[in-house]
Input
Amino acid sequence: MNLQIKSFEEYQDAYKHSVENPEGFWGEIAEKFFWKRKWTNVLNWNFSEPDIKWFEGGKVNITENCLDRHIYNMGDKPAIIWEPNDPNEAHRILTYKQLLDKVETFANVLKNNNISKGDRVCIYLPMVPELVIAVLACARIGAIHSVVFGGFSAQSIADRISDAECKLVVTSDGGFRAGKVLELKSIVDDALMQCKSVERVIVLTRTRTPVSMIKGRDVWWEDEIKKVETQGNPPCPAEEMDAEDPLFILYTSGSTGKPKGVVHTTGGYMVYTGYTFSNVFQYQPGEVYFCTADIGWITGHSYIVYGPLSQGAVSVLFEGTPTYPDAGRLWDIVEKHKVNILYTAPTAIRSLMAFGDEFIADKDLSSIKKLGSVGEPINEEAWHWYHDKVGKGKAPIADTWWQTENGGILISALAGISPTIPGYAMLPLPGVQPCLMDEQGQEIEGNDVSGNLCIKFPWPGMLRTTWGDHERCKQTYFSTYADKYFTGDGCYRNPEGYYKITGRVDDVLNVSGHRIGTAEVENAINMHADVVESAIVGYPHPVKGQGIYAYVIANHHIDAESTRKDILQTISRLIGAIAKPDIIQFVADLPKTRSGKIMRRILRKIAEGETQNLGDTSTLQDPTVVESIIEGAKEFN
Ligand code: PRX
Output
């Protein structure tokens, strides 16, 4: 699949070509994939609706590109190497042939359970091979998957299932994570008390945790497979999908309201994830590639499943966490499976760094050739540790900037080909046209400038809509600046034209690489009976990147310690443990403008400990509020 750039000069040529003739550029790349019928039109778009169509008229199934087309040459080569949570449990290898067989079988299971093209299927599974199988089985028959991260609560699952009106849920009895067992089925049971649309739950056996199976609704994965086998396990032909048919929905947090269901479609997403995987990681046949993300997030969708598999890669899938049973686990996996390419998040690097070098010093990491970073800005200290201790000073680092909405990497070095600077995402990939905008809506030209990062031309992997609410998609991404996709990130372009992402400019937090909406957390806190009002801000955290700081106005009679615990419990129940604040400060009032708007800028400064430099507070309803909040914050500094 010769779509790989081989040198920096080739990158520059490809970039130029992609801007001058985007349709020609992407058309040539799309030719490298298998289409059931070729497109009639490469691109049709406007950003005002927005209405974006790539490869219109093309018919395709992404699983034929990820599986079938590799069988002849590579059927016996590993597609997935699965490493379990417990290092003493045997790992599993699924070859491309085996993975295809299992995907077809489970696709038949879905069909037996009344799922067909266009139906929505919620997947709530631990990081086991069956998660990949379930995802691909949906794509095989054209069902739209909505994977929900295993750390989300029953309420979050219920919200996502209801929004997409999922007909079926795939889950497991439980999941192993570090030393714990997560009771996934029981969480699904709680969620489904609120969901009318779900007709069937398929339950995989993983932990043998006792579960209740509801008659007429719940069936075991293993029994359903047996049923297909007694039917002779017929092949499951890949459904013919329109290039613009939805492939999946993935929910992500924004600055307001509940999470949005970002919709990705089939053809463009396939081309974009395959192209970017091949180029950013400079993947060579046979290399072992390990992305530590969870498939519940976009990184797992694009760079554990679809991108690597469409390129015939060997993709490592890891069930556990980097610190279990100890902080050497990732290095043990690298050593055991001779990993050549490692793609992880700055928060993981920082947490492993904090354990000290003893967990990495004696590990054989000589197989590592290339490194990737994703999810949040990488600080220089973490970059150098990654470079020196993991890459032994030799492996290039691709700091990849992108978002759930983007489908794939937008700004990054190509490993070993482009220059790199610690903390810089560097240069846009071919086909990506970033620009920096000022507050007045004007583009900021030239170098050594900062502004709000926008993209002014479509790329094939971009979102098409937000599920059930196109207007929200338009308002969120395409209304801030006319005819531009607004990322929500701030960015600096240095004198050489290299890009450095400086973080969100909206009310979205990035905690351990997880995207969390402040409004969502505030709404959850406000549900607590003793809470009057709350405000959430982020503050710098040495391991998580950002920590969550909650200012809470509570009823007078509360006992601070027990109310704090109750609030944390409420958030775990309504969102999930990942959204729990690190600090909860009870306050008598919040700093508000005369029109009643909370001045978060001031709360952010206090959370950062920068109380000397609060800026103009004269527009506040009551400036004395600030003094008392500063006084109360001393407890946490
Ligand atoms: O702020 C940026 C940050 O993560 C946000 C997107 O989060 P999510 O949709 O969850 O996707 C994460 C994985 C693709 C962005 O708006 N972000 C992501 N990658 C980087 C980053 N910030 C700085 N550098 C990065 N490499």
User: Anything to note?
Assistant: The mean pLDDT is 96. The radius of gyration is 24 Å.
